Amino acid sequence: MRFRRNQPAKKPLPEPLELDILRFSHDGRGIAEKDGRIVMVAGALPGERVTARIDKANTKLWQGHAMTVHQPSEARTEPHCAHFRQCGGCQLQHMTLASQHEIKRTAVMDHFRRNGIELPEAPAMIESPPFAYRHRARLHVSGKGQIGFHNAQGNQVVPVQQCPVFTEQLAAAYEQLRTAAPLKGLTQLELVVDDSCKMGAVAVKGKPEALERFHRWVEQQGWVWNQPLSYAAGEKTVTAYPGDFTQVNRAANLKMLETGAQWLNLNTGDRLLDLFCGSGNVAYFLSHRVGSLVGLEASEAAIRQAKAVQNGDAHCQFEVADLFQVDVSGMTLVRDLNPNVVVLDPPRAGAENICRHISKLTGLDKILYISCDPATLARDINLLQQADWCLSKLALVDMFPQTKHVETIALLEKK
Length: 415
What we know:
This is 23S rRNA (Uracil1939-C5)-methyltransferase. By secondary structure, the chain is an alpha/beta fold.
């Protein structure tokens, strides 16, 4: 007979308590203090007095959510979405857009300050429509066949009837999906609309028979699941399949690329190295402005898509390379290019070692760094500054309004 060791009883969570919210955290929660502990309160704003329920508690940190707001802040606004309190997709709908921008700007500046980088002024914000901006969505299906998004903890599907950040076309397709599609047996799918308003939907996870049934339904709607969709990239049209990475907010992406192009002020004498190039989002926006271009990316599918739309552009080359495993400064393709401009668009992990590698490139004089994580961006810029690079321009991109996420674009120049 096996005996199970008795587990210590969990301490009961504190009773709801009244708190004065002192400041913001970087993820948009309010911060209070109680008996020497930090209390993080979702749905609370600085200057407010709230009654909060504690959801998690340890010795130094309590985490909870606002149940009642007794003294609302002027920054508070009514959420557009009926599912806001349950759905984990948006974190900031309860505050004005100006306050959202303030949080994001403060978070970026704090990360830079921690890395010893003092900004002479607060960076500008490249704005986006606050709602109806999302062209693509990753959706989850519950065991009961209800479709929606994960909750904030990521452990439960919140059934969602409509989402205000969807574009009009995506919202209409979602309603059709929610009310008519055979969803039972699926767990995850992606819904996307391309630049010609063509719909794509692909089931990513689920039982084999459920996947087959769903894809038959997709075809019956005149949508696609295993055929490419089309997207503008500068003067080119790139293709991607439903489920592939594409830009969620195309309006903000275009503004960001236009800003980067203006900063770089490229000409046909420039030689551009595009690292983490994907299927050519940045490369094809800039390719007609430069004399030669090399794009490197780990995804074979993305490189195939980039090559598919070259149309004889002999001055552009795209190759597969795992940039976290190779020293790009030693690659023959890169040495032959002898780039004077580098574009970096890494994942959230940043590009710490890549920054060390490109610092060895003797002809390099400009780096355009596009980041989805201000913490790793600040770390990498600090590293580049130690290698005699100077941060000359910085802007934030509100790529995902109503959420805690912010993109950043930075221009560095050789001293």
